[in-house]
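Researcher: We're reviewing a set of sequences before deciding which ones to prioritize for further study. For each one, I'd like a predicted 3D structure that I can look through quickly. This is L-aminopeptidase DmpA. If possible, include the structure in token form so it fits the rest of the review sheet.
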Amino acid sequence: MIPTPIEPAAAPPRVGRLPSGARDAITDVAGVTVGHCTLAHDGCQTGVTAVLPHGGNVYTDKVPAAAAVINGFGKSIGLVQVEELGVLETPIALTNTFSVGAVAQAQIRAAIADNPEIGRAWPTVNPLVFECNDGYLNDIQAMVVAGDHYARALTGAGVDVAQGAIGAGRGMSSFGVKGGIGTASRVVEGGGRRYTVGALVLSNFGTPESLVLAGEHVGDRLSATLATSLANEVAAPEKGSIIMIVATDAPLDARQLRRLSLRAGAGLARTGSVFGHGSGDIALAFSTAYTVPHAVPHQDATMPAVAMLHETRLDPLFRAAADSVEQAIIHALWHAEAVTGRDGHRRASLRDVLAL
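Model: Here's the predicted structure for L-aminopeptidase DmpA, in token form for your review sheet.
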């Protein structure tokens, strides 16, 4: 049975002064859509989430992108080519650690279906899959995620984004309670222009005593409340992960996008993370302002000329990235309902534990 996300009655704490987009989601960046496939039965608590940068063929019309590995305790695939070429060739996929290979293969098959010359007359394709370890709630050794689940996430992609224990976030934990998928957006204006920055996170990090909610240190309270149920975890070292996806409609090149992706770390730090030894903390940023064509009409063709935003105009985008990532983490915690999974392991919802 696939769970229906439960919308909390109260509003979550809000971060910063910048206005949000209409949905307060990454999909406020025009063209971006998000889809989930959730697997939730007995010890199987996992899934796939896909982020599509636009509605066309991502292989033939690539978007500029860059990543920042804040702490590299992770098993993602595709980052080397993103660093080298600065573009995306597939949608971005999120799943559990042991399902990276299956989802990457599904991405390759989907790209070939749309572009039959991949790997023949054309170069191969670079799948891009990020992961977090959901093994506390999910029987990760069962490796139940298959190519069809990625296809379902793509088919279901839209602008309304379910949050919490959904898709790849189904089995994730944060701060000793339920984690998962969260999203948010911020809008900046200046010089007669208006730009949107949106973030989506797969939140699976944090020790209970560290939690900070919109500047309020609630970790001691959370730690004390969980002390009986999580006696062996409250003082345990950080060993979780978080994936942070940042999208913008501002015209930035790959170098500028890497700078933007680094600011996701500021939002992450505000929630209480110190990027611990066992935590895989990775951010990727992309722009929808233009696309880079895969094919060129003739041998002497040049790259399309695009006027990039000046460096001195980046600070508002940096703030928007930090605020939207922090807000997305709060949303992941706020929207996640309690889940019981493998061997009876359970994660309560933050709102239930702290009576928020």
